[in-house]
Amino acid sequence: MTSLKDQAIQNALTGNWQKAVAVNKSLIKENPQDIDALNRLAFAFSILGRVKDAKNTYQKVLKIDSLNPLALRNLKRIGDLKKIKNDVGNAPASPRMRVTNMFIEEQGKTKIVELVNVAQPSVINTLRTGQSLTLSAKRLKIFVLSHDKQYIGALADNIGKRLTTFIKAGNQYEAYVKSAYDHRIIIFIKEIKRASRLKDQPSFISTSERIFDPDKKLRKSIASDEKDYEEESSEENEE
């Protein structure tokens, strides 16, 4: 049987925020000092637009651990309800509906992917569903960065290699956080512009389809994408 903690984590990963609230409340009822559950509950509240409840819950965390970095960081981020609304869209709908509408899939133009070689949980847990991300193409790798250029993770090689080629050819993409918790982050990628030379080439294909690879280049795997990204960025700055 799945434990309540596992259910809470799974609800966060799948974006089931109402259920996440209920499960984390159950955990807190069992143990009012459960800081992880309190932080998850506060995060779910913030996604649902319940800013006051989120603040109150983060404050409960700080009463237990006055230096808790996650609570301190997120309290600053949710100080303004308007900021949260801007992160997920301005349509006059519920936060849950706004976020859901962001992730409408379109065959060949969108894809939901789980990142590999992700950053530390202290970084991942600051991300919010609907938050925009930056795709940075370097050689045959796609690194995923936050708005302030902080490393978040990378696309798997099979997708990264393809998108690198397409970006160099003129395609443009947007990326958003779909779910993020601890060591896992799932993002939504959307093609927003297709180069004329690629008009008949979808950005994303099923694994059974042939991969379009005009350059036929191979790339050796790396032990750590985060280290690779930092090294390549350092080289560019020196130039």
CATH topology of the largest domain: Alpha-Beta Plaits
- Give the low-pLDDT segments: 80-85, 87-98, 207-225
> Count of helical segments?
10
Q: Give a quick account of the main beta sheet: strands, pairing sense, barrel closure.
A: 6 strands, antiparallel
Head-to-tail CA distance between termini? 56 Å
The structural class is: alpha+beta
Q: In CATH, what is the class of the largest domain?
A: Alpha Beta
Rg calc: 19 Å
Q: What proportion strand?
A: 15-25%
Strand order of the largest sheet: 1-6-5-2-3-4
The run of helices and strands is HHHHHHHEHEEEHEEH
Provide keyphrases for this structure:
single chain, 239 residues, alpha+beta, Serine Threonine Protein Phosphatase 5, Tetratricopeptide repeat, Alpha-Beta Plaits, 10 helices, 45% helix, 17% strand, elongated
